[in-house]
Amino acid sequence: MKVLMEAHMVWEAIEPKDPKVAPDVKTDKRALAMIYQGIPDDILLAVAEKKTSKEAWESLKIMCQGADKVKKAKAQTLRMEFESLKMKDTEKLDDFCMRLNGLVTNIRALGEAIEENYVVKKLLRAVPTKFLQIASAIEQFGNLDSMSVEEVIGSLRAHEERLKEPTESGEEQQLLLTADEWQKKEIKEGQLLFTREEWLKRSGKGNSSDGGDYRRRENRVARDRSQVKCFSCGGYGHYAAECRKSG
């Protein structure tokens, strides 16, 4: 409203260059008319009885002081929320950046200054552990004072995509199998990868209290090979390691 009145050369009615000289009536009425045009109806009723544009302007300033206090309180609340903002481990980077930018936009809309480099530093502090490597690299080798939020988000997004790439080969995945899974895998493939004594040692049955009974049962089975099934050819009477058909 002040800029509009300055453009129409009527601002001197409110702040005259010489306080001792009263503005002419025409200029004052034009300024008052612009004030009336620039405020909503509910506020217009409160200043309609003012005789001069200066009186109307001073009345508006008093009424807006309460609004300024509300804006400052809300900006303070948003800034506290901004300071405590943290990205969750399961949260996507784009979703977190939307929350961050939303807070920054609202804070700035309320008249609070928040520098770009301050937002950049906050973003690097708020990311979870999986971004720690790239965040440390940006802090050490990047110029945070001249870097934009969009540049940092781009670097973090590239790192996030790299994390999605498979890094384990089939052999590495096999190393993650449990002992039971290994045993099932060996039986399914019909392979005897270690001897009975090694299997007893790995399974812990060789040191158990019933180890003697278990070995006696094994000896009876070993003497009576008619019940022994070969996992290589499917026949009975021998083990897979002894199978002649498998070569």
- Could you say how many structural domains there are in total? 3
Our Rg estimate from Cα atoms comes to 40 Å
Q: Which range does the strand content fall in?
A: under 5%
Distance between the termini: 97 Å
Mean pLDDT: 78
Q: List low-confidence stretches.
A: 168-175, 189-193
Order of helices and strands: HHHHHHHHHHHH
Find the structural class using helix and strand composition: mainly alpha
Total helical segments: 12
- Strands, count: 0
Share of residues in helices: 55-70%
Write up what this structure looks like.
The chain is mainly α and 247 residues long. It has three domains: 2-71, no CATH class; 85-163, no CATH class; 177-242, no CATH class. The protein has helices spanning 2-7, 25-37, 41-47, 53-83, 93-109, 116-126, 132-141, 149-164, 170-174, 179-189, 196-203, 211-223. α2 runs parallel beside α4. The radius of gyration is 40 Å and the shape is rod-shaped. It starts with a helix and ends in a 24-residue tail after the last helix. The model is unreliable at 168-175 and 189-193 (pLDDT under 50).
Short description:
With 247 residues, this protein is mostly helical. Helices cover 60% and strands 0% of the residues.
Q: Keyphrases for this structure?
A:
mainly alpha, 247 residues, single chain, 12 helices, 3 domains
What topology emerges from the helices and strands here?
Elements: H1 2-7, H2 25-37, H3 41-47, H4 53-83, H5 93-109, H6 116-126, H7 132-141, H8 149-164, H9 170-174, H10 179-189, H11 196-203, H12 211-223
